[in-house]
Design brief:
Layout lengths: L1 H19 L11 E3 L5 E3 L7 E7 L8 H12 L3 E7 L11 H12 L18 H7 L1 H4 L12 E4 L5 E5 L8 H4 L3
Parallel strand pairs: 3-4
Antiparallel strand pairs: 1-2, 3-5, 5-6
Amino acid sequence: MKLLKITILMTLFSFLGNAQTKEPKESLYKLKIEGISGDDLNLKEYKGKKILFVNVASKCGFTNQYDGLQELYTKYKDKLVVIGLPCNQFGAQEPGTKTEIQSFCRLNYGVDFPMTEKIEVKGENQHPIYQWLTQKSKNGKMNSSVKWNFQKYLVDEEGRLIDVFYSITKPMSSKITKLL
């Protein structure tokens, strides 16, 4: 009888553990995106590191978060990559070209983390990366919607979504750093 109880408990704990670490329905690493310089940004290169995806804009009230994103990237770059994804969908706050965006970020904030082409993070033309980040049917964890610029999505070393952080969460917040 005691052995049966132990077996049942072990099975239950195993089930609960697996429920918390659901594998994504689709692999994040198979998705394609163009870097801001025009070459492909290969997400497979970042397997083994956490990835923080952030939709960014140059003329937003949260634009000063570039400083925190750069600090986060510099401090944790051995285990984290920050990827900035310019988006003009919220208040038309990212009107620039790729060259203008890249120049603005480097000149004003010293950004050297990877940046991508300008994309759409919601709606009919939502980029596949944001489809993955926002749809439980693809990421295996949760549904969400992008509310504004500088919303952050953290993915673990194996390409599993960890959590989403709204714009008001600063990059160096303990909500984020405790997960690194």
